[in-house]
Design brief:
CATH superfamily: NADP-dependent oxidoreductase domain
Pfam families: Aldo_ket_red
Oligomer: single chain
Largest sheet: 8 strands, parallel
InterPro entries: AKR (IPR020471), AKR2_Oxidoreductase (IPR053135), NAD(P)_OxRdtase_dom_sf (IPR036812), NADP_OxRdtase_dom (IPR023210)
Domain NADP-dependent oxidoreductase: 16-315
Helix content: 25-40%
Protein name: Aldo/keto reductase
GO molecular function, one term: oxidoreductase activity
Number of domains: 1
Low-confidence stretches: none
CATH architecture: Alpha-Beta Barrel
Amino acid sequence: MQYRQLGSTELSVSEVSFGTWAIGGAWGKVDDNESLRALARAMDAGVNFFDTADVYGDGHSERLLAKATKGKEDRIHIATKFCRAGNIHDPAIYTEASVRAYCEQSLKRLERERIDLYQIHCPPIEILRDGSVFAVLDKLQREGKIRHYGVSVETVEEGLLCLESPGVKALQVIYNLFRQKPQRQLFPKAKEQGVGILVRLPLASGLLTGKFKVDSVFEEGDHRNFNQNGDSFNVGETFAGLPFKKGVALSRELAWIAEGRGNMTRAALRWILDNPNITCVIPGFKNVAQVEDNLGVLEAPSFSAAELERLQSFYEQEVHAHIRGGY
């Protein structure tokens, strides 16, 4: 395992880290015992950073992380998020009283005294323009409730706006072979300002595993079923914003990336990690096998210059026009 500095902070995090949306809920059925085994396997492999949120299973993923990391609080870093448990458009959600309450509740579920990275969870751009929530986070940081804070964003515009606030030390973005726009302007600017980049949905909700068919069916409680067209939250959070059938067709055209790299999953993750502006990638998982598959990227060779050019052209000519969700 290799480790990278989280922006200008003192935190050094594993380049392959993990997100816990799937084990919390909204990705189909999960088994808590299997989730705990998977978390243990990741930590055994050197993973020292996990991303979660208060709304993942109504706090369930935070509780699982508390159990999995008991006694390892100094070595295993946790990032969590807030605001989506309420009406994200209501300014009252971002007041000191509200944010403090969210923070205290997460600390209780995580069984920790401090959150390593506290993130605003995809807030509306008007909240970011107002900026008063950052003063609240500054106060919680001074009090020692949080070590650092950042923002999970939906668009490049939102990310650039966040960079205007000096306290923001990390941005969490959707970035993968189907969502390449952030690399042009946002990533270099973030690096210049010492802001870390956490990459979520690196496999485009599973499209980049190459395992789906156009007639694949997802469980009723799986967001890949109920949010395919953005009916519940930003459409970009599901299949990178691509219509499902189009995404499946495009993924088939990318099957070649697996050659010499084990499979498409490892190849897709390698493409991300080869970007020097990236701090870490945070794929999801529901079992030990998926953790091990994602960790396989550590052995996957990088892409050649010709391959990278081919992937860039493919995105610009075949993919970009079909993306929904703000990028």
